[in-house]
Amino acid sequence: MEKPLLNQPDIFPSKEVLKNTLGNVHAVLEEFETLLTQTDIALTFEWRYYKDSKAWLCNASYKKKTVFWLAVFNGYFQTSFFFLERHLEGLAALEIDEDSYRMEKTWGKMIPLIFKINNAKQFPDIVKMVEFKKKSK
């Protein structure tokens, strides 16, 4: 399993650090963040270093609810959404390209859905997932 980059606890993932780490994909990340924070979607992004994952992760939340986690990898960034089994029927009803994400092994009662993002063509599917997650209980 590939490990996330940004794994030095004393180096905050500033715009410059993200640009140097992601290269051309940094522009995609900036567009992604703008789309999700400066529209009616209204997410907030907060970077923190997590000792258990030994990496900086970004918590994307709506009010107090975590919508997804974002991690940086070589050539892409990844969003991880976590759902419960009761959400699977609603997820199946979303018109999302099944090739745009992968479902990981259940983590406790949580079912992770992972998007590897390296271009803006993936944004419409992710926006649908964000809206679903915001409304789910």
What does this molecule look like?
It is globular and about 40 Å long. It has a 6-stranded antiparallel sheet. It has one domain (15-135): Alpha-Beta Complex (Aspartate Aminotransferase, domain 1), CATH 3.90.1150.20. The chain has helices spanning 15-22, 25-37, 88-93, 123-135, and strands at residues 44-50, 55-62, 65-73, 76-83, 102-103, 111-117. Helix content is 29%, strand content 30%. It has 4 helices and 6 strands, in the order H-H-E-E-E-E-H-E-E-H. The protein is of the alpha+beta class.
Q: What are the main properties of this structure?
A:
137 residues, Aspartate Aminotransferase, domain 1, 6 strands, globular
Number of domains: 1
Count of helical regions: 4
Biggest sheet, in brief? 6 strands, antiparallel
Would you identify the CATH H-level superfamily?
A: Transcription regulator MotA, C-terminal domain
How much of the residues is beta strand, in percent? 25-35%
Q: Output the strand order for the largest sheet.
A: 1-2-3-4-6-5
Mean pLDDT: 94
Structural class by sheet pairing and helices: alpha+beta
State Rg: 15 Å
CATH architecture: Alpha-Beta Complex
Q: Sketch the topology as an H/E string, one letter per element.
A: HHEEEEHEEH
List how many beta strands DSSP finds: 6
- First-to-last CA distance: 30 Å
Measured as a percent range, the helix fraction is 25-40%
- In the predicted model, the low-confidence regions spanning at least 5 consecutive residues are none
CATH top level assignment: Alpha Beta
Q: How does the overall form come out from the CA principal axes?
A: globular
